[in-house]
Amino acid sequence: MKRLTHSLLAIVLVFSLATTTGCKQRTVTVKTGEIVLCTAGEVVEDNTEDIKVPEDKVGEYSVTTRIITCPDHQNTGALYDEAQAALAAGDLATATEKLKAVVALNPGYKNASSQLKEIEGGTTPKPDSTGGSTATTSTPAPDEPVDAVSNLAKYVPDTIAGYSAQGIIADPASITRNYIPTSGNADQLVIYAEQTVDTKNAEALVDEIKLQYPTSSGTVNIGSKKGYFGVRDDFAVVVFLDGPVLVSVELHAKKGKAVDLKSAVIKVATTIAG
Fold first, then answer.
1. Angle at 42 between CA 199 and CA 244, to 5 degrees
2. Cβ distance 71 to 105 under 8 Å?
3. pTM for this entry
4. Max alpha carbon distance in the chain (Å)?
5. Are 117 and 201 in a shared domain?
6. 3-state SS, one letter per residue, for 144-205
7. Which residue of 7, 18, 103, 149 has the lowest C-beta tally within 10 Å?
8. Are residues 269 and 188 in the same domain?
9. Which pLDDT does position 1 carry in this prediction?
């Protein structure tokens, strides 16, 4: 899984000067269009384009997302179920075949990789009783979200008041999205969510982030949850846990002090925390 060791994402906002009616007007390059994301964490289609718009019109443009299970990954859950059935029956040859197929489609899918390593190491792994992403071995419909990415997408919504949603970076266990503020003293917002193994693992990640953002730090309320606020240079961050999911919200100050963004970053975190 990813580890946050520096800024969550370096985003460059490209500003240019356009001459209109005899005066100079600041314009901003923004993305608009749609991104189609597979539940396995891959961008299936990027139907976005970069356009230059007046700075005061940024809020009128954004990127929307659609999550599907692409054809290449539709059979992952069924193959995983077949592998578990083979393990339960003691058929390691079939289990190995099915697990290799699962790993080829999605290396981070459930226990497939670790089970395959156990078999290759000469031991027999315990079958996963939770099963695959479907209740049976039937193939899910192409537009039926089933994996971690579809669960993480709620933390990076298409709409946050005061921000224009931009591109997405995803893998099987995490998702990152940047936004352009439409007003205020910040020029970029980055939201990162990661599905960890368990709450203990997520708490360890929070401790890492605390070391990266040590200034003006302390515990804050994120709705009914507790979070951490901290500052590093021009960046202000709030991080909170939703069970085993770590969520980080980061704002960059274009002017003034990063600590002055505290209320703004808490507001965004509270919005997505639900």
1. 5
2. no
3. 0.73
4. 79
5. no
6. CCCCHHHHHHHHCCCEECCEEEEEEEEECCEEEEEEEECCCCEEEEEEEEEECCCHHHHHHH
7. 18
8. yes
9. 43
